[in-house]
Amino acid sequence: MRGGSLLGIATEPEVSARRRVSAGHIAVALLLLVPLLAFVVPAIAGHPIMPNDDADQNYPLRVLAGRQLAAGHLPLLNPYIWSGAPLLGGWNAGAAYPFTALFAILPPVGAWVANEVLTYWTAGLGLYAFLRSRGIRPVGAWLGATAFTVGGSFAIQVEHFGLVAGVSWIPLGLLALARLAEVTSRRRRVGWAALLGVFGAMCVLAGEPRAIDDAAVIIGAYALWLLIRGGRSRRDYLLAAVGGLALAVLLSAVQWLPGLYAVSESQRSEAAYDLFSSGSLHPAWLVLLTMPVLLGGSNSFRVPGLFAGYNMPELASYIGLLPLVGAVALLGTLRRRRPIPEWLIWHVVAAVGLLFALGGHTPLGHLLYHLPLFGSQRLQSRNVTITDLALAILFAYWAEHWLARSTRTAAHRLRLLGLVPVAVAAVFTVIGLGWPGTLARLLGVPRATLQVQQMQPLYFSFLGIAAITAAYLICGPLLRGRVRAGLLAGV
Fold first, then answer.
1. Is the pLDDT confidence value at 250 over 70?
2. Fewer Cβ within 10 Å of end Cβ, the chain: N or C?
3. Are β-strands 77-78 and 85-86 bridged in parallel, bridged antiparallel, or unpaired?
4. Which residues pair with 82 in a beta bridge?
5. pLDDT tens figures, 202-247
6. pLDDT at 153
7. Helix, strand and coil in the chain, % to nearest 5
């Protein structure tokens, strides 16, 4: 029987069920606590998290929708710009999103903070539940959920609240799909299909077309994967999944029908390829997945802003070195003549996310441009959220392998490939410190823009992170289970 330490790691031959349950309780408590600290504490201090587009657009539109609901009116029209503009059909207000109704009953800032907390609870607990349903123990599930919610583009994109609100429902959609592929009872299948419909509808009602695109890619890929791997119940699963997705379309029609009409009457209806490809991630900048501040930061804490003529939040996707380590290292466990592991689909999803984020910088750019809905949107770099979610899931699977292995030989295979992302981060950082001109050429930016002198503290900090990560990977197999798990969480 698997053991369980404080975080649910196997450290003893036998352990009581009570201790294993407590590990899950601690993980859930942490996932609940972090968003409260991140959003409620600054708001109490008079500084709610409301950056850029949130302050200029998302917050005031939601306040307007809440006032109209409180007055007994449907939030259909914004009378304060032009000669009136769509409020529901304009998407950004999330006027039909159930959480927006909080603005009708709470003070505006309180409703905003409640929406932020609920969004990050939904994403974190949803991903945790999905990973636990895949047999991953609490520590791995907690690491994956935490990496996604507070470490990557999902956290950075909080300034585009509709995007994170919509994406937050994707993990619960994955959970519903996974359960549909497992249950045999017709009643339970209908229940999970209904939940899939509700989760999918919430993604649309959040009011961000980009979130719908990302959900279509992730949910679609996983649904197809489950269908291919299905057994005798493949037909029942397909019918239930299609029924759930159809229900999502119907429940969210109140948003997407007026939304598509409003888009068809706007400048987006004639969007050219230049608009679509604007903001596509440059291939050379994929190295920022391993070291995010090679080209500058976000003008915080005396760190210079990004030197590449781009918006930092639109570019950053760093969720940590360890998720990259996990994704690469898992490939070393593949063996011929063995069943294809369930986690392999997330490597495919991660690659697709990068392809979409590269947008106009790929030969497929003109093909992607003609995809319905997707082709009318700009800033393709935002699709890196797809990759971040896949990396977080792979991180959880890798943690399960890494912490469950008791032999040094098995752990040796996991660490060798895992050192590759660490080496990439270290090499590019060293180049930046010693040969900034070479770094500028490699990343395709003007040499004059690189303020390496000001960036040195961050460069040295990330060299330290790379060194600590490498040391953990090298020495990890020598450590006992509980120590290895604690250090993993620390790193």
1. yes
2. N
3. antiparallel
4. 84
5. 999 998 999 999 999 999 999 999 999 876 678 889 999 999 999 9
6. 87
7. 70, 0, 30
CA 220/CA 400 separation, integer angstroms: 26
Amino acid at 137: R
Tokens of 271: 């969007």
Amino acid at 434: G
**What letters, b where the CB count within 10 A reaches 16 and e where it falls short, cover 366-385?**
eebbeeeebebbbbbbbbbb
0.85 surpassed by pTM: yes
Q: 178 Cβ partners below 8 Å, 6+ apart?
A: 130, 133, 134, 222, 226
For residues 163 and 167, give the distance between their C-alpha atoms in angstroms, rounded to a whole number: 6
DSSP code per residue over 332-372: TT--TTSPPPTTHHHHHHHHHHHHHHHGGGSTTHHHHHTST
Please state, in angstroms and rounded to a whole number, the distance separating the CA atoms of residues 164 and 210.
10
Contacts of 330 (CB under 8 A, 6+ apart): 341, 343, 347, 394, 397, 398, 401, 414
What's CA 76's distance to the chain center, in Å? 31
Confidence at 328, pLDDT banded by 50, 70, 90: very high
**How far is 229 from 225, CA to CA, in rounded Å?**
6
Mean pLDDT across the chain:
86
CB 411 within 8 A of CB 475: no
Closest C-alpha among 99, 90, 117, 356 to residue 214: 356
Orientation of helix 170-180 relative to helix 186-205, angle to 10°: 160
For 228, other C-beta atoms within 10 Å of its C-beta total 10
Average pLDDT over residues 71-87: 91
- Non-local (6+) Cβ contacts of 206 within 8 A are 94, 97, 162, 165, 166, 168, 169
What is the distance, to the nearest Å, from the Cα of residue 344 to the centroid of all Cα atoms in its chain?
18
φ, ψ at 230 (rounded to 5°): -70, 155
Residue 361 is classified by DSSP as G
- What's the rounded mean pLDDT across residues 29-35? 96
pLDDT digits (tens, 9 = 90+) for 384-421: 999 999 999 999 999 998 888 654 545 566 677 889 99
DSSP string, 232-245: TTHHHHHHHHHHHH
In this structure, the dihedral spanned by the alpha carbons of residues 236, 238, 243 and 245, taken in order and rounded to 10 degrees, is: 150
Q: Is residue 93 within 8 Å of 100, Cβ to Cβ?
A: yes
452-477 pLDDT, tens digit per residue, is: 677 788 888 889 999 999 999 888 88
The mean pLDDT value for 161-176 works out to 96
| Residue 20, pLDDT score | 52
CA separation, residue 165 to residues 157, 217, 357 (Å): 10, 17, 20
